[in-house]
Amino acid sequence: MAVMMQIKNASKSYGSQVLLDNAEATLTDGVKVGFVGRNGAGKSTLLRILLGEEELDRGEVIRSSRLQLGYLRQHDPFQPGETTLEFLMRDSGQPDWKCGEVAGEFELKGDYLNGPIAKLSGGWQTRVKLAALLLHEPNLLLLDEPTNFLDLRTQILLEHFLKHYEEACLIVSHDRAFLQATCTHTLDLSRGKLTMYPGRIEQYLQYERERREHEERTSAAVAAKRKHLEEFIAKNKARASTATRARSKSKQLEKLEDVELTVDQPTVRIRAPIVEPRRGPALRCVDLAMGYPERTIAKDIGLEIDHGSRAAIVGDNGQGKTTFLRTIVDSLKPLEGEVRWGHGCDVGVYAQHVYTSLPADKSVQDYLEYHARPGTKTQAILDLAGAFLFGGDLVKKRIGVLSGGERARLCMAGLLLSQHNVLILDEPGNHLDVDTVEALADALLDYKGTVIFTSHDRHFMKRVATCIVEVRDGRVVNYGGDYDSYLYSVNREIEEGERELQQAMAKAPPSARAARPTPKKVRRSEREIRKEMTAIERTIARLDGEKKEANGKLMTSTRADEAMKLHELVESLSAQLSEAEEGWCRLQEELEQAD
Question: Which is nearest to 145 in space by CA: 564, 517, 429?
Answer without folding.
Answer: 429
